[in-house]
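Run log, item B.
One chain of 476 residues. Sequence copied directly from the ordering sheet:
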Amino acid sequence: MCGIAGIFHVESSKPVDPERVRRMTDSIAHRGPDGSGVWTAPGIGLGHRRLSIIDLGGGAQPMLTEDENLAVSFNGEIYNFLELRKELEASGYAFRTNSDTEVILHGWRQWGVGMVERLHGMFVFALYDVRSRQLLLARDRLGVKPLFHAAIADGSVIFGSELKALLAHPGLRREPNLFAVDDYLAYGYVPDHTSMVQGVEKLPAGHYWLLQQGKPAPAPVQYWDIDYSNRIKGSEAELQEELLRLMRQAVLSRMVADVPLGAFLSGGVDSSSVVALMAEASRVPVKTCSIGFDVGTLDESEYAERIAKRFLTEHHAQNVSADDYSLIDTLAYHFDEPFADASALPTYRVSELARQHVTVALSGDGADEALAGYRRHVFHHNEERLRGLLPQGIRGPLFGTLGALYPKAEWAPRTLRAKTTLLSLARSGAEGYAEAVGVTGPAQRDRLYSRKTKLALGGYRGESHMHRLMEEAPAR
């Protein structure tokens, strides 16, 4: 997994205490049990915790160029590093390791910030250029790897893979961010753009942040966004073949590792597809891991076993109790921020099981989001069609009144529970969807807040972030 941390003095090149950086990286030692390192230069300190996956002997970090003018601390994997390495070698760069990390160093010299757009993978990294006194922080397109950062009173920017790395710095003030509290109560998690601690932010997915010593810090720059506006055309068969080609390419690129590799297998379509493609590409049985429950209505282990037998995997299964609350403190420690999704419990257990057999595990997360697999996507699509038939001026009062009069009827069959749908149709599509995926609505939260909290929030609503995402999305 790996973890990074660091301190950068934006206003001056005063020394960074290496022990302070070490305390930050020690707080996230669980991310990298295989090694650690700290590097400092005037105004900068980089720290790293390593989980060895590629080039076990030669990939120690922070990694420096031979002339020691560039240093990088990197968390993640660059899936196309071999292609980039060939291109850089053709341009005259000499590599001293077989690590994907070194591609970032030479890539900066060859392409500058344009290097980030060439990287295919999951990553965050901090790269420092001694000559130009520039620090580049970058995060992968979909934000698989996290990066927290904060500006503190002594004029420095501190950053790390987890919030606890920043909390290890004595200069960070520990005050709650009330806007993030509202976000959490709205969604059941703290969204990617913010943090539960006042003054701490997360570098957004698909962004880089280029800081120059002696100059005011600019805003992070977005280098990529997912785009649904230009749809690929073709027959259903052609599109099926293209999807399979992309999935096969994605799975193969993630199987590059110098350590034991396996997969999480739930028996669902997404994880089963990943395991099938891994089995197709592997000369040895794929190691698969799954979790079952002691409650029949929750247990899906039968499907996982069926897939394991079909693809002749080396399958490892474990049953857990559905009310396994012993992990609460452990999960709170690792998440740093409150997280109200019960899937965290089985995810931790299957990771715990997998770690007994492999170092890297592929999973099927994200397929429902990417391919509109949730029932709420169908509901939203149908609601949008209805919204298109009536202007808001008519739809709002009409469905708003009907929704207010309709009984809540949670006891009734699902087809008769129309109250939520009617109220949703009275709103815009973005407003309706944000409420549909929410945990508590604005009215409920309003009843929880004191007058002081309401004044501090100043009318802020966590749903507004979702509204902006939907309204500004590059899609038809």
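Observations after the first pass:
- The chain has a mean pLDDT of 91.
- The chain has 19 helices and 16 strands.
Flagged for discussion on Thursday.
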